[in-house]
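Q: My labmate handed me this sequence with no annotations at all. I'd like to see what the chain might look like in three dimensions before we decide whether it's worth expressing. Could you predict it?
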Amino acid sequence: MLKDRIEPFQLSLLATVAALTTIAWYFTYAQVQSMGLLMSLGVPMSLGMEGWAGWTSFAAFTGMWLVMMVAMMLPSSYPTLLLHRTVYRKRTPDARGGTFLFGLGYFLTWTASGSLFYAAYIMIGNYRHYAISADAIVLRAAGVALILAGLYQWTRLKQACLKHCQSPLHFIAEQWRDGRAGALRMGIEHGIYCFGCCWGLMVILFVMGVMHLGWMAAIGAIILLEKVVSGRNWVPRMTGGIFILLGLAVAIFPELLTRLSVQVIL
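A: Here is what I predict for the chain of 266 residues:
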């Protein structure tokens, strides 16, 4: 039977991934419910709520971003985590925690990427504060950002990074490093490849609002679909085409972005 062929550590890892993903989504929802508190701390969350620079807002945004990345990226990372754990157990059966450090390095990379989006929100906020007719310019610029994100879905760099994420066996075989420090470094390197694959999709989330649950779920589903449907280019190209058309519409009708980014909180 199928259950007889599944190793206990596979089931434990799957259960851990499922539990952490559920917890991350719960805390993300709780953060949305506490949006008023985050706003009072100056935490930027959308093009209309850019917040202000400060260590408190930066720490809160970084923590919020980490939880969001776990919720969105952890399910699609399960095959890579499983492969790393399988090889790690065979090569170093007496060393514990290697795959945990691999995952830690991976999400540290994504946490670091959040600082880029934080800085972008702050810069946009400063621009809107001092510039005349800034709102319309920002909204049209957001449309251009959507177009660029869609175009990236068609590039060779996107395909190269996506191929890495779809087939982690090559990465594990070629870039393997023994020990806990090696596992941490591998996780960071894998995170860089993954950021190269998904930064365009994160730009979509940035434009629509990083705390928008609907867009979070949509982007997370696209990322998972891209990694699952290996050997095919139609998924990123189809989504890229949709985002290009969406960006053109926003650039022409800026008010459309406001409607698309409205969130209904239950």
